[in-house]
Amino acid sequence: MNDDKPAPEPIGEDVRIDALETRLKAARTREDQRIKPAGGAESNADYRMGNRVLAELIGGIGGGAFIGWVIDRFAGTSPWGLLVVMALGIVVAFRSIIRMASPKP
After folding, report:
1. What is the pLDDT of residues 41-62, one digit of tens each?
2. What global pTM score does this model have?
3. Cα(35)–Cα(39) distance, rounded to whole angstroms?
4. Which residue, 8, 58, 77, 101, has fewest beta-carbon neighbours within 10 Å?
């Protein structure tokens, strides 16, 4: 009276799926080793130092240019205020970079 077919037998483990999982696991391990940072904390410190040097240069030039431009706008000394204050900003930036790079006593 019941026309339902019996459930099919569960499919057994396939060797190909096991091999695929093994290869995926090995590939993930290799990828984790590849993207792992090589130098650890030392390379992070170098990266931070490089960013700080770049910020000093950009800040010195940009800040000097902006302040010089403002002085020129109000004093009417265009372009001398911009040039002088930007040059001072560059000098201050290089001085700061040299002080960063010199060894501490």
Report:
1. 667 888 899 999 999 999 999 9
2. 0.58
3. 12
4. 8
